[in-house]
Give the backbone structure.
Amino acid sequence: MNEMIVQSINSIVFSMLLFIMAAGLSLIFGHTNFINLAHGSFYVLGGYIGITAINQIGNYWLALLLVPILVGLLGATIEYLFLRRLYGKHRHLEQVLFTMGLALITTDIIRLNWGTYVVNIEPPILLDASITLFDAQFPLYRIAIIAAGLTIAGLLWILIQRTRLGTILRAGVSDIDLVSETGINIQVIFTGIFALGTALAALAGIIGAPLHGLYPGLQFEILVLTLAVVIVGGLGDLKGAFLGSILIGTVDTFGKALLPEISLFLIFALMAIVLLVKPSGLFSARGE
Amino acid sequence: MKHNSNTSLTYPIIRSYSRRKLLKIAGAGAVAYAGSTLATACSIGNDVSGTDSPIRIGVLLPYTGIYAALGDSIASGLEMYLDEIGNQAGGRNIQIIAEDTEMKPNIAQQKIRKLVEQDEVDIVAGIVSTGVLYGLREYFHNNKKILICANAGGNKISRDMKSPYIWRSSFSNWQPNWPLGLWAYKNVASKVFMSAPDYGAGHNMVNAFSHSFQSAGGMILGKQFTPFPSMGDPAPFITEIRKSRPPMVFCFYSGSAAVAFVKAYNEFGLTKEIPLVCSGFTVEEDVLPAQGSAAVGARSGLHWALLLDNPTNRQFTTAYKDRTNTDANVFAVQGYDTGKIISHMLNEVQGDTSNTGKMLESLHQLSFASPRGPVILDSKSQNPTQHIYVREVKEIDGQLHNAVVEDLGEFTDPGDDSLG
């Protein structure tokens, strides 16, 4: 029984990590209708640059703040130089090809800079401890991930539902032409969204690295996981991404605990069923 | 040395591989272009002698994914040996053509065809994952192409899936684990919980350990086979292990999965309570820096250890560190010995690679001094007969390494499933 409760906490931890991973992807697609398959690359870049930054600066928290900003600026630059040429309703294939190319280039840049050995970010000293749960040790860092996930979800909700910028963003989803005609520079808004999405990916990379390490090819694993989350939850919808994360995180954790051999398959089975039954995602507010 | 060493093998692979991938994505079938770039890049400095065409060795390794570091280490070890012999054997220059298998048997199928049918390589070396090895077995066998397998330990290749064309420089999965099971029963505990990835190698290692452990009187409390290649978050598995409250855990993981598993094992407090006994790859030198103190105290069985005290190993580990700036690992040793075995074959036929029969014949009971100690290529299992060592992760001069606890003696794969 106690183990089931611990597994439930494990599933919440993993769900929150998934949400932090997927939020950026969902945000970008939801508000710019751009499919960014390089999302996993910004995630691992965040992790790797994070390691270098932590070593150079010597302060985990400062690195946690600065690295997402840096990667966000990189994202904005890439958006400004390339991606804005690829916006448009029927250009998803071009977006997929271009961002896949970006992902492959990033793989090589990472290999050249950081090598192929698995590297790891140690949790900050403050969180490198454990609490006792049913006479057993549970890492504090994992509890902190729950807090981080909820905080990020809350801040994004406030940004989108409670600020003027959020009003513009939501209007953009409904009718982008109308927004431009009211004199709002939608290009700048798009660049900003891409910067925010990639910064979130980088933040997730730093937060997730202590759990799985960093290695060449990780970005594609992350990409597949985040795509599963947004497909199940509803692409481009923050609430969908949140609920999708919880569903996938729960299925994954209990699948691993009860049916380890088929646990990986369970996520994809869930994804396939959702695609068949409700292609817009289980929690999507949008029609089909 | 006329050779332009360090980067000649590793980096051209990366460059050509990525370029090729990009082109493929763009829909341009420019494989030939990338191939020629690679050939040019790899033959830099190979101006040692004559105008003869070089001997081509195809190398199949994963350069991405959870075993990327293994592929890199094997490549570095192989390259180091080839440099030592001036990139020449049997009177001819040696040229390496490398391809990325990504751990996927279907990708490996395309790559082996490219190497054999397009690049016309004489010998193939490499292969990290057992799945890839099994998937390519028929190809080597039917095409009578020699493979020196530099890692993948799938038992079947020494047993019912044996081919005269496939020899291993590495190990069979049975080898390190069967002796370890016996040792663990005598020295650690009589009950065990087992955890390994759900693929050929994971099952092989668990079976070998189980066989000797149970034969000695040990009891298996539970087994878990986790998703492969990536296990994702290991926390649910660790919680399941604790549920059965075992006095000992046996596991096999490698690459990034080994880092994730060992770290979680420690974070959830199991390191303090339940001794971890594992297949040596789990805490090998390639993953130890990332595992850090979480790995301290883990005991493992393997056919090599960084601090193994013999002259060949001392020389090898020093030279490898000078060359790559990282500590050697077992995969680098296997790459190095692969180079040694290949050059032996080529010398036997004086560079005449059409004489496949004589090259293969020269491998039977071939013995040489390896960094892992004396090695003999066993005729029956076509796999090394070698010593198995129990190692323990210890802090030595401020760094974590595997120290040898005990030499369990020499082991040969039984060649059938009688011992697990």
